Every structure is written in structure tokens, then in C-alpha cells.
Amino acid sequence: MSPASLPVDVRPSQPLADLTSWKVGGTAEYLALPRSVDQLASMVQWAVAMGLTVHPIGAGSNLLISDEGVQGLSLCLRRLQGVRFEPTTGMIEAYSGEHLPTLARKAARAGLHGLEWLAGIPGTIGGAVAMNAGCQGSCLAERLVDVELLDPSTGKCWRLRGQDMAFGYRHSLLQDMAAAQAPWIVVSARLRTSPGHAPQNLLEIIKANLSQRNRTQPCNLPSGGSVFRNPLPLKAGRLIEVLGLKGERRGHAEISTVHANFIVNRGRALAQHIQALIHLVQDSVMREKGITLQTEIKHLGRFAQSSPGPLG
Ligand SMILES: Cc1cc2nc3c(=O)[nH]c(=O)nc-3n(C[C@H](O)[C@H](O)[C@H](O)COP(=O)(O)OP(=O)(O)OC[C@H]3O[C@@H](n4cnc5c(N)ncnc54)[C@H](O)[C@@H]3O)c2cc1C
Fold first, then answer.
1. Set 93, 226, 250, 256: catalytic member
2. Which CATH number is associated with domain 3-76?
3. Tens of pLDDT along 155-182?
4. Which residue has the CA at smallest separation from atom 21 of ligand 1?
């Protein structure tokens, strides 16, 4: 196959920044946004035949994309949407691109309890499975019955049970595959909820959750959510705050003054500015506390390994 035989809707040299919540990053060598499983399969088949690395992207709300861009096929699944409810059993089947806040509201309106906490997480179901997204003591692993996964190298779909996904704190087996040339892709997932609840009560819980987020997180500026994993039982945000790093800036990137585990884009930040702040935090926490802070966010594309010093 040659680039000339590009499947419809696979585009070369496409900007990626607007497909991320941080609004930073360069261009994709190739970008595809499938709307159906058939489109997804043919795009992936083309990429594998071309020897291209496949990079699944959901809503890009946990991704730092390099300013240099991304080689291979960036496969953005946010348009692969659709959801089906079974109101009597509480089972929900959602395609990978279903937006978590929308899904949480739809479930609440159907009287299905158990997903209210998803309303403040701006990702997709596929990203939430890959990351085992969670908050307020809940996580996706607790709700996942099974997941349909596409293996790009064979074009086959497999259904794995939740307990076979090697879930841990913000971890699933999909992350172990992320460095592969053709990592498995979440096509859809089935979640269990508890049926028969009053929609108004569930919507009230969502409202309370969101207002708490608005008070404690910098929701008005682009970010990637929590940048660092908590070195349990400690909180990454608290460690960064006590070291006086809130408000540190590189270019237009800033360690949030609202929540120290967030790095916000105050306008025209570059990925290298955000990465410089990540290194600043990691170096400071190691030097002052002897603790290695690991990132929760995922990197896509090439980044410098060590601190490049102050930028911008
Ligand atoms: C303001 C804000 C608040 C946040 N709050 C929370 C929170 O409370 N709790 C929490 O856990 N997270 C939170 N996040 C982070 C993020 O929203 C979650 O990690 C979310 O699950 C990521 O989903 P996504 O679709 O955006 O994934 P992406 O960011 O696009 O991708 C994340 C990872 O998942 C992989 N991936 C994505 N889709 C697929 C797929 N279909 N198949 C296989 N792999 C895939 C990617 O390759 C990548 O490795 C927050 C982010 C922001 C910006």
C-alpha cells in the first residue's frame, strides 16, 4: 500500500493541539477520526500495512503531545460514539468515543446510579479504560464488566473481562502495550450501574461534584488534569505546594495557583514549556524530599529526557 491509497478520512500533516485539553503539540504525520467500527478497522489495517505506529487518542485530556509532532497514525476515537442502556439491569454499553460527562448525565437521567463521579472527567470511555480513570474513591475498574478491544496487528476484536485488564491505580494493561507499534484499541465497553434511582437525586450529586471541582481546580484554563501520580499515601499537589512552586512559569505554562498538581496553559504555552515545569517539579521534589514523582499524564512524540533549564 502507498500513501496514495489512503483510506478516506486519513489525512496527512494535521495539527493535533485542538484535539487535546492542553491545546499544545505539533502535527500528526497522519490523523484519522473514525466514526464507525468499519472505518476504524480499515484505517488501522492501512496503517499496519504501511508499517506505521498507531497512537490511540481519546479526548486528549491526559496527553502531552510534543511540539515536534507525532510520527505514524494518530487515531482519534472521539467520534466513535453511541451508547445503549438496559434500564432494568443497569447495564450500559458505550462506544469508545463517548464523552464521560455526557455519559454520566445520560445515565443519571435514565435513573442509573454509579457513574455520577465521571461527570467532571473530560475524557472518553476509551481513555478512561486505558487510564482506569477515577476520583472521589471510585474508579472505572469497579464498573467495567468487559471491554471490546481491536488488535491492529491481526484486525481481530477480542472481549476481555474487567478482571483481566490488570487494573491498578491509574493503570491498565493497555498502558503496558502503549509502546508497541500497534497497541490494542478500545472499541466499546460495558459498565454496570444500579438501576431504579430518582434521576433528580443523581443530577444533584453531579451538580455538587462539579461545583466542588470548580472550587478546587483551575477549570477555566486549558490543562491536562493532574500531572503527577500521587506517591501514596502522599499527595503530589501538597508536595509541590509546600515547596513553593505554585505560580512558577515557563513561557505561558504555569503551575496552577489553584491546584499545584495542575499545569495550566495561560495562552500560547508550548509542550516544551510544560515539560520544563514537569522537570522542575520532579527535580525539586527529589532534591528536597527524596521522592520520585512520576507523571500521570502520557507523553506522545519526542521529548528531552532531562531538564532543559528555564525557557521563555
Ligand atoms: C480538567 C481535568 C480534570 C481531570 N480529572 C480527572 C480525574 O478526576 N480523574 C482521572 O482519572 N483523570 C482526570 N483527568 C485526566 C483525563 O481526563 C482522564 O485520564 C481520562 O480518562 C483520559 O481520557 P481521554 O479520552 O482524554 O484519553 P487521552 O488523554 O486521549 O489518552 C490517555 C491514554 O489513553 C489511551 N487511549 C485513549 N483512548 C484509547 C482507546 N480508545 N483505546 C486504547 N487506548 C486509548 C491513550 O493512548 C493514552 O495513553 C482530568 C483531566 C482534565 C483536563
1. 226
2. 3.30.43.10
3. 999 999 999 999 999 999 999 887 777 8
4. 128
